[in-house]
Amino acid sequence: MASQEFSKKLIMEESNEHEENSDSPPPQPSKEKGWSSFFKPSMLTLLGVVILVGMGEKMAERFLPLYLIAMGGGILSVGFLNGMDNLLSSLYSFPGGFVSDKIGYKRALVVFNIMAIIGYSIVLFVPYWWAVLVGALLFISWSAISLPSIMSMISKIIPKRKQTMGVTVHSLIRRLPMALGPIFGGLLIHYYGTTTGLRIAFGIAIGLAFIATILQWFFVKEPEKKDKKPIKLIQSIRNIPASLWNLLISDILIRFAEQIPYAFVVIWAVNTHKLTTVEFGILTTIEMITAVLIYIPVAYFADKYRKKPFVATTFIFFTAFPFILIFCDSFWFFVIAFVIRGLKEFGEPTRKALIMDLAPEDAKANTFGTYYLIRDLVVSIAAFGGAFLWNIGTTAGPLVNFLVAGAFGVIGIVYFIVFGKDLDSLTNNETPAKDV
């Protein structure tokens, strides 16, 4: 009885959304309508924006350390830039969600694009190394500050029974600029030199972000939003339901397993086991290909069944990686390890969709941003802890680093299995999902 009432409510909400969204097609049978939502102008525009802004960001961002040194910044400025990137990624999550819930995801994404354009312009027109750091404050974490808005937008455009697939499609599209951007940036540097090449890259990034902003303004549709009082951070934290807290705690533990050895994997491979940098680049490509290949099939089954088993599985792959690193002493052992590392993306889009499922209905973007703020702030400790563990000794340090990381992962898996909650996805027949 309760599931029938929930299904009726969902159908009524989707009908109201069709009336408010001018780019929504007329109501159709459930199965057809679910897939047709991926071809709405708003959704297609969102994916285009992710490619355009992402290309500009990744084309220039990867080579910022070279640009800093070329402009006289020195090694300390590079370290400061890296630390600032990690800190901003966590701190920007909450304001990103706050702004999205306050003014709507359409206007919020426009604001974030304008911030990036201003940041690129500062680097382009102010030829000093410190200008890179100032401009980076505005553009280096575009992905972090815009993610809550994007997740909110997907939750509004895509029916609940297809939202994991929606998040997965976004994750796949994000990887196009991640893969292609550095190639184009590298070519510009190769032909024009570091300084001129990067300035050209920043100029292109400004143009791409401007085009993305125009597309958003004219093609992204959003229902009218009622004025809401600003939600303070403390209130936003209180709004996180217990079921989402359990996911957050387990996610933090799992991210400790990832971040403790994160910066030292390349040292372990190249310095300790004498892999070439080219071979290490191939390992990264193997990881990316593995992740891309599993995204769509996993999203299909995650939407059809419960999400918790898929999230638990991705936590297992996160945990397995540091343990496997202990036994890696040749290129082919590292290939196996990086396939496992790629498989950690098994349930990542599903986890994001589960966050949106468990978040309060009227503050999804805000809750999503608060979740990432808390998680990334706590997990940033792992980077410092990993360095301390690595320095214990030449032989013992790496072993201790990997074992401690894996131990955190095991605790996170057990915690999630015992306390983690799930929200039933709907099948095409609008009935509760079943266990796998």
Describe what this molecule looks like in 3D.
- The protein is mainly alpha-helical and 436 residues long.
- The protein folds into 2 domains: 30-221, MFS general substrate transporter like domains (Growth Hormone, Chain: A); 233-436, Growth Hormone, Chain: A, CATH 1.20.1250.
- The protein has 20 helices and no strands.
- Helix 3 (41-61) packs antiparallel against helix 11 and helix 19 packs antiparallel against helix 20.
Topology:
Blueprint lengths: L1 H19 L9 H7 L4 H21 L2 H7 L3 H18 L1 H11 L1 H21 L3 H11 L2 H16 L5 H30 L1 H26 L13 H6 L3 H21 L2 H8 L4 H28 L3 H18 L5 H13 L4 H11 L5 H27 L5 H24 L17
Helix pairs in contact: 3-9, 3-10, 3-11, 4-5, 5-8, 5-19, 6-7, 6-9, 6-19, 7-8, 7-9, 7-11, 9-19, 10-11, 10-15, 10-18, 13-16, 13-19, 13-20, 15-17, 16-17, 16-18, 16-20, 19-20
Features of the shown structure:
2 domains, disordered N terminus, Growth Hormone, Chain: A, 436 residues, disordered C terminus, single chain, 20 helices, mainly alpha
Quick overview:
With 436 residues, the protein is an all-alpha fold.
What's the CATH topology label of the largest domain?
Growth Hormone, Chain: A
Q: What is the general shape?
A: globular
User: Roughly what percent helix?
Assistant: over 70%
Low-confidence stretches: 1-33, 425-436
Largest sheet: none
What is the CATH class name of the largest domain?
Mainly Alpha
Work out the strand percent: under 5%
Order of helices and strands: HHHHHHHHHHHHHHHHHHHH
Radius of gyration, in angstroms, nearest whole number? 22 Å
Distance between the termini: 23 Å
The SS-based structural class is mainly alpha
CATH second-level architecture of the largest domain: Up-down Bundle
CATH superfamily of the largest domain: MFS general substrate transporter like domains
As for the number of domains, it is: 2
- Total beta strands: 0
- Average pLDDT rating: 77
Q: What's the number of helices?
A: 20
